[in-house]
Amino acid sequence: MKLFAWVTVVMVAFAANSVLNRAAVGAGLIEPVAFGVVRLWAGAAMLVVLALVLRGGLRLGGAGRGAGVLGLLAYIFGFSWAYVALPSGLGALILFGMVQVTMFAGSLIGGERPPLLRWVGAGLAFAGLMWLAWPSGGASGGVWPVVSMVIAGMGWGVYSLAGRKASDALGSTAANFVIAAPLALLPMGIHPGAMTGGGIALAVLSGAVTSGVGYALWYAVLPRLDGAVAAVAQLTVPMIAALGGVLLLGEPLTATFLMASAVILGGVALSVLGPRYFARSSSGS
Known about the structure:
The chain has about 280 residues and is mainly alpha-helical. It has one domain (about 1-285). It contains twelve helices and no strands. The chain is globular, with a radius of gyration of 18 Å. It is a multi-pass membrane protein. This is EamA domain-containing protein.
């Protein structure tokens, strides 16, 4: 029961990143670039503390570090820009679907040969994303917010692929944040944008708590979860984000969003869980 409670806390934390970002930049409390920079620095500070306490130190080098840092920067800024216009749940859904599609493509490039069900699942998820991104679909605010979230999803997918090479997920994440934080100041210097106390507070909360502490908790519970359970748990994040947007920000919940959600999340579930289910069924028979 305790494990279920901690997993629930982590999923809520991940979903809260969407609600916090939308609440800050959507309301004009802070510019997207500034939100991303503050979030990165707050996350880096928290993760360094956690790495020192839990690991006894921090190593900045390691396999896949360059790709991880670049992927993190693409995620952070794409995520922030997208929520100028996208509702919380819709943004989380596009992000989640694009991460899965990117990781699928990365596996192909890496020489893996996925089974048929994984192809079908990835195709369904991509079709659902295209449905949302189409002008007559569920996306609001124009094309560029959707493009920004697609970039964010690709960035997080690259980040996740690079993270497969890490022996210490928490230490690797802390190192990526520490290296990315000063690099993020470059666009900040070009376009600092307006900031309010409320916007900064939301960015710090997103970086230090729902990102930094959230990632640390996830890496703590992940070894105790079956891979399939972990995958299913993450399917709840867009729905939690959508609920948070409806309850806290007064965002609408449209029929198109719900139907596209079913297609995208169903495709991801089929891609992740389908091959395992049939492998177990075959071995059982």
